[in-house]
Amino acid sequence: MTDPHANFKSEVAAYLAHDPMPTIERLSELTGVPAEQIVRYVLVKYAASNADALLAATPIVFRQMLEIVERAEAGDDRAKLAAYESLKQIVQWLALGDRPGGNES
User: Fold this and answer.
1) pLDDT at position 10, please?
2) pLDDT at position 52, please?
3) What pLDDT score was predicted for residue 97?
4) First to last CA, the chain
5) Domain containing residue 41
6) 38 within domain boundaries
7) Please, which residues have CB within 8 angstroms of residue 19's CB and are 6 or more apart in sequence?
8) What is the pLDDT of residue 105?
9) Residue 52 to residues 43, 60, 68, Cα–Cα distance (Å)
């Protein structure tokens, strides 16, 4: 059984390699705004800006989708079905921001 959140989990793991706190702390020092408030601001602004956030992520998502299609085109029917499932998961993830409450169903 495939994990419907595998792509998201993989992306989260990739971003864990980077520490945003040095940037947050420098911004805090420059502005006088506590680091905790800046972190909350960033999270709320990102979560509240569905369309803006999706537009910012589009190049990455587009490249991922293109790679999936290219692998499918080079493969057999099973590869094409796997590609469909992967693309479906990406589209469902992108659509979460447009749904009240962010429900997947």
Assistant:
1) 87
2) 66
3) 60
4) 19
5) 22-102
6) yes
7) none
8) 42
9) 13, 14, 24
Domain assignment present for residue 53? The answer is: yes
What's the domain count of the chain? 1
pLDDT tens per residue, range 35-61: 999 999 998 887 777 666 566 665 777
Residue 23 has pLDDT above 80, yes or no: yes
The average pLDDT across 70-85 equals 93
Residue 90, domain member (yes or no): yes
The 3-class SS string of the chain reads CCCCCHHHHHHHHHHCCCCCHHHHHHHHHHHCCCHHHHHHHHHHHHHHCHHHHHHHHHHHHHHHHHHHHHHHHHCCHHHHHHHHHHHHHHHHHHHHHHCHHHCCC
11 part of a folded domain: no
Task: Provide long-range contacts, Cβ within 8 A and 24+ apart, for 69-78.
Answer: none
